[in-house]
């Protein structure tokens, strides 16, 4: 099913531009033109992510964010035209997941929306996993404590190594390209190089494979990407 995006934005041209680019990507989009209608739509409609403008009539974006966050954990991306608002978003404990500053490129907006939706989906999946653990043969990943055990021996992983290994384990036997992996693991860090993925794959293999030249867990699918074999 397509994801539902709620845009709370009083500038009609900006709201319609955001809607058009998101709809091109297959999202279903609803627009609310002010804080009051935005709050009603946020609390009464099935949304997967909210794009929330800071400067709104009736209820401003800061107050609106707090009220919405009290009722739902879905991603909230705040949109601001003023750089001084960034410190408020970071420091007031509003519950926003991210911010984006006008003017922004449509591609950046879409990338951030996709990244937050993907992370939220992973969070929901982890919460639904019994005991927060994933088992793949002798490999045990505890997603709650962020620990990895191979044949019951704990192995140390960096944050991104753990995130990548967990993503593979949550999607066994599926092939993912370097570009897809980079977007999923480094989704909000838009500046980067896909070679980063190769480096992290190599480091993970060194930690879990008996023979890195003949990997049994994370395998290379030439011309396509990588997969973790269940």
TrEMBL record:
SUPFAM superfamilies: C-terminal effector domain of the bipartite response regulators (SSF46894), CheY-like (SSF52172). Keywords: DNA-binding, Phosphoprotein, Transcription, Transcription regulation, Two-component regulatory system. It comes from Oceanobacillus arenosus. This is DNA-binding response regulator. Residues 131-230 bind DNA. The keyword Cytoplasm does not apply. One of its GO terms (biological process) is regulation of DNA-templated transcription. It is found in: Cytoplasm. One of its GO terms (cellular component) is cytosol. The modification 4-aspartylphosphate is found at residue 53. Residues 131-230 form the OmpR/PhoB-type domain. Residues 4-117 form the Response regulatory domain. GO terms for molecular function: phosphorelay response regulator activity; transcription cis-regulatory region binding. Signal peptide: none annotated.
